[in-house]
Design a protein that fits this description.
disordered C terminus; alpha/beta; 5 strands; 274 residues
């Protein structure tokens, strides 16, 4: 396959998995990687930062971020190849397409393929993705903010000690999703983490329908996920749980989460109430 053909293929109805961190995006990615000829690199973060592409400050994180360099090593993209991709790309969409094409070649993918990308923080650039990549579709992952914020407080993957900051990770993603959904309702799907882990086959079938991608039967099983552990019950004081409720509760309700009821069930209802 020629480089030109590979690049053109890299724009065939891509899927972006976005949302707040600690919301099940990695589990969703790992499950989707089972679908034949549906490829996904490690997180690229190409649309995460707001700096206009190829302006002086825009390229530094792409080139020098230690995590992204590690991801490129996993993907099989050496420094020379990545520098060529940067120099040939005029905008972030071209950067994404060229990277996917190089990733496919590095992985020995020579036949027709579809692709997806999982960087939850790309939520910040989702409107730009939608404009620059008109065939792109999105799955927005959302999870009860009590558990998202608790996970960030515990720092098992992402450490955010400031509860207001951790809440804003969740709130900003939710706010951008609402704007994206209003503008592109047919291209955006919302998936709750709790629904995913409760019925993996059903949730994955919904994603595949959303992107019109057939898949062999029996790829997914109920045992592919465990139920929600509700880490917040042990991670928070009553006052901290109330802070998350007060900061996130109104928007959380639009996704079907009742944080006040959660706190009441845990005996925290009166603590820190406003």
């Amino acid at each position: 396959m020629t480089a030109k053909a590979n690049l053109e293929m890299a724009d065939d109805q891509p899927l972006f998995i976005i949302g707040s961190v600690r919301s099940g995006t990695t589990l969703t990615r790992d499950l989707l990687r089972r679908v034949p000829n549906f490829i996904c690199p490690e997180e690229t973060h190409f649309f995460r930062w707001a700096e206009p592409f190829r302006t002086p400050h825009s390229l530094h994180p792409y080139r020098n971020n230690a995590l992204l360099k590690k991801h490129r090593t996993i993907d099989g993209i050496d420094d020379a190849t990545f520098e060529a991709i940067l120099s040939e790309s005029r905008n972030k969409a071209e950067l994404q397409r060229r990277y996917i094409a190089a990733f496919a070649r590095a992985q020995g993918v020579i036949g027709p393929y579809r692709w997806f990308e999982k960087t939850p923080q790309n939520i910040y650039g989702a409107p730009l993705i939608a404009q620059q990549m008109p065939k792109a579709r999105f799955v927005f992952m959302v999870r009860n903010p009590l558990n998202v914020v608790a996970s960030m407080k515990l720092g098992r993957q992402v450490k955010i000690a400031d509860l207001f900051g951790a809440c804003n990770y969740w709130l900003e993603a939710a706010a951008i999703y609402e704007t994206l959904r209003a503008a592109y309702s047919d291209r955006v799907m919302c998936l709750r983490y709790e629904d995913l882990v409760a019925d993996v086959p059903k949730a994955m079938a919904e994603i595949l329908r959303h992107i019109a991608l057939p898949a062999p039967p029996a790829l997914f099983h109920a045992r592919d996920a465990h139920g929600e552990k509700n880490l917040w019950l042990s991670a928070f004081t009553a006052e901290e749980a109330a802070q998350v409720r007060d900061q996130c509760g109104a928007i959380a309700a639009t996704f079907g989460y009742d944080l006040a009821a959660d706190l009441a069930a845990a005996g925290h209802a009166a603590q820190g109430a406003r």
